[in-house]
Amino acid sequence: MDVLQLAISGLANGCVYGLIALGFVLIYKATEAVNFAQGDFMMLGAFITLGLTNAEFMGLPFWISVPIAIAIMGVFGYLLDMFVLRHMFGQSQIAVVMLTIALGFVLRFVAGTIWGHEPKSLESPIAGLDVRFGGLVLGLDEVSVIVVTVLLTVVLYVFFNRTKLGVAMQAASQNQLAAYYMGIPVKRVHSMIWALAGAVAAIAGVLFASKGSIDPSTGLLGIKAFAAAVIGGFGSLPGALLGGIIVGLIEPFASYYIAAGYSQIMPYLLLFLILVFRPHGILAQIHRKKV
Amino acid sequence: MRTVFKTSYDADINLFRHGQQAAWYVALLVLAVALPFLLGTFWLGEMTNVLIWAIAGMGLMVLVGQTGQASLGHAAFLAIGCYANVLLQDPVGLPFILSFPLAGLIAGVAGTLIAMPMSRLHGIYLGIGTLALAILTDDLIVIAEPITNGVVGLIPPTITIFGIDIDRYMTPDRFYWLVLVVAIAVILIYRNLLRTPLGRSFSAVRDSEVSARAMGVNVARTKAVSFGISTAITGLAGALMGHFAGVFNNETFNLIISIQLLLMIVIGGLGTIHGAFFGAFVVALLPQAIAISRDIVGALLGGGTVAIPGLESAIFGALLILFILFEPMGIYGRWFKIRTYFELFPFYRRDMFRRQKSYLKTERMR
Amino acid sequence: MSALLEIDNVTLRFGGVTAVNEVSFSVEEGEVFALVGPNGAGKSTLFNLISRFYDPVEGDIRFAGESILSRQPHEIASLGIARTFQNIELFEHASVLQNLLVGRHRHRRGNLVTELLFTPFVRREEKRHRDAVEKVIDFLDLQAYREKTIAGLPYGVRKVVEMGRALAIEPRLLLLDEPASGLSVEETQDVAFWIEDIKKEMGITVLMVEHDMHLVSSVSDRVLALADGKMLALGTAHEVQNHPKVIEAYIGVSDVNEKVVA
User: Fold this and answer.
1) Does the distance separating the beta carbons of B214 and C51 come in below 8 Å?
2) Which of A183, A201, C97, C226 is found 20 to 30 A from B187 (Cα to Cα)?
3) Domain count across chain A
């Protein structure tokens, strides 16, 4: 039973990492920008939900504040692209990385100023409850994280393959110039992608906050999620989820079977090995520059 | 405007373009040497800090600015240099004059070894690889507690060079001069790098790996050498940082320091020695600037002064965002424009330095 | 005359596409050899094979009698093979002078330590490289652009700089990938004169890919036409232009009596 319990909690953590990683990959695939602030997006989404829900702030019902938070983060992502990142067109990738790292600093400060620096818990209806499957007792929070992640994956899959906007996004990410010639408003599509990444981050934030407390530095989790994205194969959406789940599973098992101090190291050690032996991740998509 | 009439190839090879430029830098050097007589202990300490950051910045600049390889984990090499220097002095018993260059060498070798498997990685993959390295180093210091004393940390001994004691607190002026000597040595090495085939092969790798290869540049080896030089300089800075801090542990060289170092050279201006120094001034003096302005605001409002957590990095981050958006060449770029304005007065044109807008520069297909 | 470069039955496939299909030819020492053919014929791919960016599936490539297939890409320049690129691959953020000096990399004799200390030997070396580069600058009339950064230069100048950078290598064989594409008529004429001089005065063998048949027929000794990775015809420019297979490849029908005026 122990192993199963570990696996479930690892899986739940992994899903959150996977969702953040998904945000990285969404943006990277479409715009080639790497959003290092994706973890801080998640933190911000969690805090906005918390600010709307918790009694000490606005005290709205949970099920109303969640969609509002998702919408706010979506708009935030859209505006961020429109006013900041669009002007980065043509600058090197690393400049965008620096920009988003700096943005993370600013977001952490803003969140800390509004909601304080101490850990806070989201008053969520799914926190602290149990579900029973036969003899197995599982936290409702963990189960819902997994279920929501699966549902979201299905929704995203349908979105990208069945809707006009989703297909336009795919086209724009595969060949910008061609998409532009075909009449796809590439710039607007980019902003939509950022909005989508913001919304996904908000969902990840709500799920994460339901499992435990959050504080502004929670955003640094993004680094681990980023490692997950690379492990899975940067540029592949299923890879991002896979990487997230691998990292999520490795951590509890490493601390259980090796020693507590090593659970921190394992994801990065794995990342290192992956980079050395399979530099483009498990589900790699390799291109070569033509000369 | 000054026109330099060149009469030999030496004019392009020498360190200074003309006599007047040399005179300016000599004046700056005299000022730097005389600084301990002009400043109080506190500000001298701050200036020492600026110099140490500038050395670390130059180290990273070799890699990022010259070779175009981003490292998000250079704090790892600060740590390696720092621990190597102190451990070589204390349990091993070497004098500082040996442990210090050895610390640089060890950091350099470590960097080269790490670069070898990673030389295939590009842009963001290299960034995340080095990031992982910084996190691993942090954890390894804790795990290697018997040697590193874990989270408790180590206290560096007083430096003795030929019987002269140099200590950060007892003799801040001597410590400052020591740092200054190292900084000047690093500047000279950096300048030499820029004017030799080695430095040119670095920029060749930065601008086009394909054509660097066609020119006979061994790209993997060049990257490894660049990593080695960069991390050796960074290691030296780390050793000085340890002596400056007075006590250090794994937290002294955490991930934030890595990122701060990178942000610093971007703010200063990528690819130039000036940039490393400008950036170092911002990083090292920003906390003081915030403290002073807080005191002023507090005095004006008549209230007490409250420390705002995270304000420092937020201001730093905001500064960086503004620079990337409006002045991607950093403080050096702005300074260069202002200088050009006065040199060309009144013929300066606004769009003289206008950036060429290009379509998305793809880095996916390398 | 002896064969300087031998392409021996070379085949290269990308996935299911055969980019180069059993191609064999040899370039004689001292000649100008041109590769022509429609887009996607495998001309640039051949260059990339010689540069060792790709490994052929079959066949051998020999330079001065020795196979180069065991060489790393960066060793090709030191054998004496220089090249330019179809889409210009210069070092954007460096000056023209710096770009040409990178071309001297194969002649580097200093090492890490001497260079970082900038010993008198390194200074003498620098002057030697500079001398060699100045000769190229004089040859290609690049004096006005010496200190200029590549990023701000017009297209035509960049093309010339790239040729200069390849010449700075002091090669035995020069690969020119579309040296005249995008150039004006006058600029193309300059290129033709330069290629003549490169062959006659410098004694460098030239292998080039070019679409401009005027340029090809005015400078090249022999021409090889390719289509879909296969060899169509080999001979003088006149012979190749009138070869029925070549006409078919360009126009699409075999029994046309008109001459191709490309």
Assistant:
1) yes
2) C97
3) 1
Both tokens assigned to A126: 């799914």
C164 touches chain B (CB under 8 A): no
* pLDDT over 70 at A226, yes or no: yes
- The DSSP line for A53-96 is HSTTTT---HHHHHHHHHHHHHHHHHHHHHHTGGGGTTS-HHHH
C45 inside 8 A of chain A by CB: no
Question: In this structure, is residue A61 part of a structural domain?
Answer: yes
> What is the per-residue pLDDT for B358?
41
The residue among A35 and B306 whose pLDDT is bigger is A35
- What is the signed CA dihedral for A235, A236, A239, A240, rounded to 10 degrees? 60
State the first-to-last Cα distance of chain A, in angstroms, to the nearest integer: 57
Span of A226-235, A277-286, C204-213 with lowest mean pLDDT: A277-286
Q: How many CB atoms lie within 10 A of CB B170?
A: 10
Nearest one of C227, C221, C261 to C245, comparing CA atoms = C227
Q: How high is the ipTM of this complex?
A: 0.88
Express each pLDDT in A186-222 by its tens digit: 888 889 999 999 999 999 999 999 888 899 888 888 8
Tokens 């990775």 belong to C229
Q: Is residue A178 part of a domain?
A: yes
Instruction: Give me A214's structure tokens.
Output: 């959050």
CATH of C81-170, one of 3.40.50.300, 3.30.1330.60, 3.40.50.2300, 1.20.1270.60: 3.40.50.300
> Does residue A198 form part of some domain?
yes
d(CA B104, CA C238): 66
Low-confidence ranges of chain C (pLDDT < 70): 1, 252-262
CA quadruple A64, A67, A71, A72: dihedral sign: positive
Q: Say what the alpha-carbon torsion angle C241, C243, C247, C249 is, to the nearest 10 degrees.
A: -110
Q: What is the DSSP letter of A143?
A: H
A96 pLDDT band, cuts 50/70/90, is confident
pLDDT at C260: 45
The answer to whether C119 touches C127, Cβ cutoff 8 Å, is: no
The residue of chain C nearest to residue A289, with distances taken between CA atoms, is: C53
Residue A247 lies in a domain: no
Instruction: Identify the pLDDT of residue B356.
Output: 47
Task: State the amino acid at position A14 in one-letter form.
Answer: G
* Interfacial B residues in 168-207 facing A (CB < 8 Å): none
- Residue among B360, B361, B365, B366 with most chain A CBs within 10 A, to mutate: B360
**Element of type H or E holding B302:** none
Alpha-carbon gap, residue A35 to A25, rounded angstroms: 9
Strand partners, C207: C33, C175
Domain with CATH 3.40.50.300 in chain C: 1-80+174-179+207-262, 81-170
Whether the CB of C73 is below 8 Å from some CB of chain B: the reply is yes
pLDDT of C157 reads: 93
Contact B16, B29 (CB under 8 A): no
B304 vs C: CB within 8 A: no
**Nearest chain B CA: its distance from A51 CA (Å):** 20
Low-confidence stretches of chain B (pLDDT < 70) are 1-3, 302-307, 347, 349-366
| Element containing residue C66 per DSSP (H, E) | strand C66-67
From the centroid of its chain, how far is CA B164?
Answer: 28
Name the CA dihedral angle for B286, B290, B296, B302, rounded to a multiple of 10 degrees: -170
Q: Do residues C90 and B229 make contact, with C-beta atoms less than 8 angstroms apart?
A: no
Give the model's pLDDT for residue C14: 86
Tell me the mean pLDDT in the region A266-289: 74
Pick the CATH number of C1-80+174-179+207-262 from 1.10.287.3510, 3.40.50.300, 3.30.1330.10, 3.40.50.720: 3.40.50.300
Q: What is the pTM of this model?
A: 0.89
